[in-house]
Amino acid sequence: MEAVDHRTAVRDLDPALRESLVERSDGPGLLRFGFHLGAILVLGTLIAFRVPFWFVLLPVQGILVVFLFTVLHECTHETAFKSSFLNTAVSILSSFLIFVPPAWFRFFHFAHHRHTHDPARDPELQSPKPSTLIGYVKHVSGLPLWFSAIRTLARNAMGRSADDFVPEKARPRVTFEARVMLAIYVLIAAASVFWESSLVISTWIVPALLGQPFLRLFLLAEHTNCPHVENMFENTRTTFTTELVRLVAWNMPFHAEHHALPTVPFHKLPDLHEAVRDHLKTTADGYARFNGELVSGYSSNKS
C-alpha cells in the first residue's frame, strides 16, 4: 500500500464521517468524568477511614489522580464537552489536583501540536527523553516532573516566565493563575496543620507521588524514539492496550490519531482509528512491551 501521511488521510475521509467525528457533546464527557472523579472520591473515602488493607489502594488512587492529566488534556482542546463552561471548569479542577497551571499548559500544549517532535520548537523536547537506564529510572520516578512543576508555578507566580510559547499579552493571566493556585495550596496546608489532619497527605499527595511513575511510563510511549518528521503517523505513536487503560486515559493511547485530527473528541477516537489504522507507521503492542524494548535498547547501547 502506498504511504499516506496524516494530512492526506484526513483529507480523504468521507465528508459525512469527518463531520460526525468532530461533533462534540456533553454526555460522554460527563459520564467519563463522573466515573473518574467518582472513583477518586470513593477510594479517597476508603483510605480516609482506613479500611482493611487501605494502603493497597494508595497507588490505585494515585493512578486515578495523576491521569487527570488526560482529562486536562482533553479539556484543553475543548473536546471533552460541548459546553465551554464544562471544559473550563473541569480543566481548572483537574489541573489543580495535578499541580499544572491550566492556561500555561494550554499554550505549552498547543505549541507541542504546532511543532510536534521538532527538536528546535516542540516544548516537550526542552527536557530530553532519557537515553540511559539511570536516566530512565530517574524519569519514571516522577521526581524531575515534580521539581519542574514546582519551578514552573513559582516562576510564573513571580512573573518571571520566559517560556516563548506564552504570548506576551497572556503573561499577566499566567502569573495570576499561578498565584491563585499557590495561595490555595498554602491555605490547604495551613488548614491541615491547624486541624492536625493528614487527610490531604494520605488521600492526595502520597497517592499522587505513587501514581506518577505510571503516567511517566504511559507518556513515554507517545513520541519517544519516533522520527523527527512532519507526518503525525510517524512522529507520534499509537499504543494498542486494554479497555481499562483507554478508559482511565480518555482514549489517549490513540495518540497518532489525536495528533492527526485534534478536534476529534476522546469518545470518537476509536472511530477515527478504524478509518486511518492502515496508515499508521509508529505503533506499540502495549505499554509494558514498549517500555521493555526501550530499556533493552539502553542495555544494547551500553554494550
Plain-language structure description:
It is a single chain. The model has no long low-confidence stretch (mean pLDDT 96). By secondary structure, this protein is mostly helical. It is built from 16 helices and two strands. Strands 1-2 form a two-stranded parallel sheet.
Could you give the topology of this structure?
Elements: H1 6-11, H2 15-21, H3 27-48, H4 57-66, H5 68-76, H6 84-97, H7 102-114, H8 133-141, H9 143-157, H10 171-194, H11 199-223, H12 232-235, E1 238-239, H13 243-248, H14 255-260, H15 269-276, E2 283-284, H16 287-302
Parallel strand pairs: 1-2
Helix pairs in contact: 3-4, 3-11, 4-11, 5-6, 9-10
Give the biggest sheet. 2 strands, parallel
Poorly predicted tracts of residues: none
From the spread of the alpha carbons, the general shape counts as globular
Cα-atom radius of gyration: 20 Å
Euclidean distance between termini CA atoms = 37 Å
Into which percentage range does the β-strand content fall? under 5%
Count helical runs: 16
The structure class reads mainly alpha
Q: Please tell me the overall pLDDT.
A: 96
Strand ordering within the main sheet: 1-2
Secondary-structure element pattern, one letter each: HHHHHHHHHHHHEHHHEH
Number of strands: 2
Helix content: 55-70%
